[in-house]
Amino acid sequence: MYPLYEAAGRELTLLDKAPGHISPHLHQAVEFVYVEKETLELGVGRELYHMEAGDFGVVFPNRIHHYQAFGGPGGRAFYLLAPASMLSPFGNEWQQRSPRIPVIRREDVPADIVNAVYRLFESTKEEQVARQAYVQILFAKAMTRLELADENGQEDGDIVYRCVCYISEHFRETVTLPKMARALGVGSYVLSRVFSGTFHRNFNQYLNETRLDYACSLLMHTDRPVTEVCMEAGFESQRTFNRVFRQFCHMTPREYRKEMMAVGRSEAHKSDPLCHSRSARV
């Protein structure tokens, strides 16, 4: 899978993983998250929502969101990113709105939602009709529990929103903090505060993690040489690529590709594509 904000929305993506920190991002898919064990913090826009085991969350397309986890080991959460095309029976009007509160508490989560989540993760890619039906059940049942509010476009001028969009569009190019600051019409100091205060990492760390997302996708889904993957993802050198890869994936790019091939593509789509580094970011 390519970076969430870039390509999610074109196909159904399923992630079964321990709750962990995921930096602010956006994409064109509807994102569902079901917490099975421990807790998870879901941030949408400027708001942060605490999720307990059994809670269910829904994030509409093109909304900046992130995750934080402060619980103990043994946690588990299911993330489902569904393209809007799978929800065509519901029309397009809902895409101009967004849940006022995106979390449904355990006691209010319909049993059909929990059942659909587990059925989706038990299904295979060949069961497209069944998968679409389960996604539509998730959406339909969730809409009976969520209050929608009209979008007012306030995010267009939000600096965090603009940062995420800029990185998603330019991460494969030569990007520096001063260059980005000039493009966004703000000072470098302001951007530094955004990355440290909102993303909980500096500019270079966020940029490298974004590039690593893309590189892992290429390693998993293509047979391009590692050197080509390195350049395509925007890394300035093979040395930097190898260092960042080891830092977050605890293995070399070639070892990662070999491991993914061993797992098999039929099961790889249920794992976190970023070499398990999402958990390492907590």
Provide a concise account of the structure shown.
This protein has helices spanning 4-7, 111-122, 128-143, 159-170, 177-184, 188-197, 203-221, 226-232, 238-249, 253-263, 265-268, 277-280; strands spanning 13-17, 22-25, 29-37, 40-44, 47-51, 56-59, 65-68, 76-83, 97-99, 103-104, 148-150.
SSE blueprint and pairings:
Elements: H1 4-7, E1 13-17, E2 22-25, E3 29-37, E4 40-44, E5 47-51, E6 56-59, E7 65-68, E8 76-83, E9 97-99, E10 103-104, H2 111-122, H3 128-143, E11 148-150, H4 159-170, H5 177-184, H6 188-197, H7 203-221, H8 226-232, H9 238-249, H10 253-263, H11 265-268, H12 277-280
Antiparallel strand pairs: 1-8, 2-7, 3-6, 3-8, 4-5, 4-7, 6-10, 9-11
Helix pairs in contact: 2-3, 5-6
**Total tally of structural domains:** 2
Write down the overall mean pLDDT.
Answer: 85
* Unreliable runs: 1-7, 265-274, 276-282
Beta-strand share of residues: 15-25%
The CATH topology of the largest domain turns out to be: Jelly Rolls
Task: Tell me the Rg in angstroms.
Answer: 19 Å
The CATH superfamily of the largest domain is known as Regulatory protein AraC
Q: What is the CATH class designation of the largest domain? A: Mainly Beta
Q: Judging from the principal axes of the Cα atoms, what is the shape?
A: globular
The percent of residues in helical segments reads 40-55%
Q: What distance separates the N and C termini? A: 21 Å
What's the total helix number? 12
